[in-house]
Amino acid sequence: MTITKSKIGAVLALAVGAGLAPTAHAQVVDAQEVSAGLNTTNNVIQFTFTPDTVTPTPVNNFTARPVIATANTGISNIRFQLLDANGDIGTAGAWVTCDGATTIGIGLNANTLVSCSATGNYLVERTNGSASMAALAPFARALFDAAPGTAGVDQVTFGTVCDADDDQLATGCTLYIAPTTGTRVITAPAQGTGSITLSAGPAVGPTITYTPATGGTVTFPAATSIGGTTTQAITLAGAGGQNGGTTVLSACSSTVGNITFTDGADTCTAGGACVDASLDLQCVSTNAAQTGTATCTETRQNESVSGDGITVVSSRTWNVSCPAANVAPALAYAPAPGPITMPTVGQGQTANSSIAVTPSLGSGTGSSTVSGCAFSGAVGATFTAPVGTLTFTGSGTTAQNLNFSCVAPTNGQPDGTATLTCSENIGGSINPRVWNVTCPDGLPVAAPNVNYSQAGGTTITFPAGASVGSSVPGSVSIDIDINGGAPGGGAGPETASVSCSATAGFTVTGGTAGPIAAVAANGTDTTAAVSCTSAASAQAGTLTCVASQVIDGGAPTTTNTTYPLDCAAADVNITSAPPAGPISLAGAPLTNVSGSIVLSNSGSDSTLGCSATGAVTLGVVPGTVPSAGSATVPYTCLTGAAGVAGTGQIVCQTQDPDAEATLTYDISCVGLSDVPVPAINNFGKLLMVVLVIGLGLVGLGARRQ
Q: What is the Cα–Cα distance from 315 to 324, expressed in whole angstroms?
C-alpha cells in the first residue's frame, strides 16, 4: 500500500489540531493538499523501525532504509539523529550532518548508518546485524531546514524501503512526521513514498519605530528668509515581522499649507530594511510661526494563513512646528540719505530736525540696528548728533527717530554745513547711511522758540487706576520753555505761544502759555500734565501741543508736537456686602436657612470662583463680577438642633489686586427652639373678668362727671 497525499494531509491536519504554535519560519504542507499552520522552528521527519513480531527469533540483516531527497537547494542542512526506545537521544545520538559523500555511523553500536550522496539524496539504514531486533533502539529521525522555502517549489520527498534476509520479513516500517514540539504517526506498509512541500508561512509586516514618536513634534529649523525652505525628516526603523511581510507608509498629508511631504511613502520588509527609512517634510517659511499636524497611513501585513491578505491599517500622526523665518527688517529713512536742510530759526537759536526710521518685512528674531551716528566736517555752525542705538526686531513696523540739531549762524553769514553718518546693521550686513546737513544762517528777526523737556514722540504711560473712572497721572509731564527770538523793530511784536490738548479719556492740566514776545527769557513757562480717566479696558490717545510763532504781528506759523498716550485698564475693585468675616443666621432646627453675598465691582471685569464647606451649600455662582456691576453668591446653611449652630465657610476668589482677592466668610446658622406661652388657669381667668368689669365701671364714672 502506498502513502497517499490524503494520508499525509491527515497527519498535517492532526498537527494543526494539536495546537502547534506558528513561528516565523517555514510552513510544512502536503504537495497536493495545502494544510496551513504547521510552522516549526525546525522541520523534523522521524522514522520508526518496527521489528518482526516473532520474538526472540533473530531477524538477520534486517534493513530499513528511509530515503530523503531534496528537490533543489531551497532545502538545506539535512541532519540525522538516533533515539532510543523511549524517544530519548542515545549515548551516541548527536546530530550528524551529511557532507554529501560520506557514510557515517551514528547511534548505539554504530548500527544505524547515514549514507550521503553527492546528488543530495540521503539514505538512512538501520540494521540489526546478528542481534535481536528487540535489543535495538527503534528510532531515527532526520531534521531539515528551509529558508524559508518557496511554495510549490522546494520540497522534501521521502519513502521507506523495509527488507530482510533469511526467512523472516519485517512486518513494516513506521514513518513519523514529528515537529519538535510533538509526534504525529503514519503507519506505512513495507514500502511507501510521498512528499512534503515547503512554502512560505503567513506574511507579517515589521513593527515600525518612528523618530520622533507618533504624537511627538517634528520641529523645523528657522529659515533665514520669508519664502525660504527648511526640511525635517521622520526616520523609520522596522523590527520583527516574518516571511517577507511588509509595512507600507502612504497617503501622507499636513494640515498646514506651507508644510508638505517631499517623500511621503516608504515600505519596510520583515527581515530586511525600509526603502528610504524616512518620511521627508519641507516647510516654506513665513513671517509667523506655523503649527499643525501631519498624518500618514500605515498598512501592515498581518496574515494568519499565507496569502489571506489580512492587513492592519493605522493612522500615524505627528505635531509639526515651523518657526517664523528669522529675517532682519528692512529700514526706510525719511528723509532718505542725501541732503537735509535744517529749519530756519533766529540767529544763534537752535534748529531741531529728525530722521524717521521705519522697519518692514522682518520676522522671527531677526533684528536691525542704527547706531554710532556722528557729524564730521562741520563748518560755520555747531551740530549735535543723534545719541544711542535704534533697534528693530521681528515683524514690528513702528518708526523711531534720529534726532539732531544745530545752532543757526549769524544772519548774513554762510550757512553751516556738516556730514551726518550712521551705521546700519541689517542681519549682519553693515552699511553706512550718510546725510549732508545744512544749517541756514539765522533770521535777523525771529519769534521766540518753543522747547519741550520731552522730545516729541515720547510715549506717556499711565498705570492701572484703582477703579473705573478714577484719575491716574501720566508717567511724565512736559515742561515747556518759550525763549529767545529776535525783535525786528516793526509795527508788530515777535511772539510765541503754546496750547496743549489730549484726546477723549485724558485730561490736560497746564500746557498753555503766551503769547510771549521776543526776546523771551529761558525757563519753564508752563507744564503740561496729563491724567487718564481709568476705564474697564486699556485706552490709547495723543497729547498734541501746538506752538504758534508770529513775526511782526503777522499770520502765525504753527508747529504740532505730539506724544502717544497709553493708559492701562483699571484694576479690579471688589466690595462685599456683607463684608468678609463672620455671618450669623438663625432658623428652625435642622432646616436650610438661605442667605446671599453681593460682590460689587467698580473696576475692570473680574473672574469669580467660590467654594463652600461644612453646613454651607452654594447656589449658582456667576463666573464674573462685571465692571460697574455686581454678582450675587447665593447659599443655604443647615441649622443644628435647637440651640445648636451649623457652621461652614465660603471662600471666593477674584482678580482684585488687594485684600479682596480672597474673600472668606465664616457662616453660623443657629437652630431656634419654640418659645412656650404659659396657659391661664381658672383663677387667672376670674381675675381677668374682674379686671375688665372694674375698668368698665371706672369708664362709666368718668362719663357721668
A: 28
Give the containing element (helix H, strand E) for 235.
Answer: strand 229-239
What is the DSSP pairing of strand 495-502 with strand 512-517? antiparallel
The pLDDT of residue 370 is 97
Planar angle of CA 648, 653, 655, nearest 5 degrees: 160
- Reported as half-sphere exposure (CB side, CA atoms, 13 A), residue 377 has a value of 10
Low-confidence ranges of the chain (pLDDT < 50): 1-200, 675
- Dihedral sign (CA 222, 224, 229, 232): negative
- Grid cell, residue 438, equals 545744512
Cell of 342: 535744517
Give the DSSP letter string of 166-179: TT----EEEEEE--
Torsion sign (Cα): 530, 536, 538, 544: negative
* Grid coordinates belonging to 305: 494563513
Q: Are the C-beta atoms of residues 133 and 59 closer than 8 Å to each other?
A: yes
DSSP letters for 504-526: TTEEEES-EEEEEESSBPSS--E
- How, if at all, do strands 259-263 and 278-284 pair? antiparallel
Give the C-alpha separation, 703 to 450, whole Å.
Answer: 99
With beta carbons less than 8 A apart as the criterion, state whether 528 and 477 touch. Answer: yes
Distance CA 599, CA 576 (A): 5
On whether the CB atoms of residues 506 and 529 are closer than 8 A, the answer is no
CA distance 146 to 141: 17
| The three grid cell numbers given for residue 372, joined into one nine-digit string | 554710532
Q: What pLDDT was estimated at residue 489?
A: 58
Nearest partner of 41 among 196, 142, 179, judged by Cα: 179
With DSSP H G I counted as helix, E B as strand and the rest as coil, what are the percentages for the chain, rounded to 5? Answer: 5, 50, 40
Cis ω for the linkage preceding 440 (within 30 of 0): no
Under DSSP, the state recorded for 607 is E
Question: What is the structure's pLDDT at 676?
Answer: 54
Give the separation between CA 162 and CA 173, rounded to whole angstroms.
6
Q: How far is CA 413 from CA 384, 409, 436, 448, 551, in A?
A: 20, 6, 19, 21, 21
CA gap 705, 703 in Å, rounded: 5
Quote the DSSP letter at residue 160.
E
How confident is the model at residue 516, as a pLDDT? 93
Compute the Cα dihedral for 33, 34, 37, 39 and give only its sign: positive
| Inter-residue long-range contacts of 32-38, CB under 8 Å, 24+ positions, other chains counted | 32/5, 33/5, 33/6, 33/8, 33/9, 34/199, 35/9, 36/202, 36/305, 36/306, 37/305, 38/12, 38/179
Which sign, positive or negative, has the C-alpha torsion 125, 131, 133, 139? negative
Residue 54 · residue 168 · CB < 8 Å: yes
Q: Are 313 and 299 in contact (CB under 8 A)?
A: yes
Q: How is residue 10 annotated by DSSP?
A: H
Contact yes or no for 306/203 (Cβ under 8 A): yes
- Alpha-carbon distance of 505 to 537, in angstroms, equals 12
Element at 585 (helix H, strand E): strand 581-587
pTM above 0.85, yes or no: no
Which value, in Å, is the radius of gyration of the alpha carbons in the chain? 53
* Cell (9 digits) for 288: 509667523
Enter the C-alpha cell of residue 210. 518612528
210 sits in which H/E element: strand 207-211
Contact predicate 173/67, CB 8 Å: no
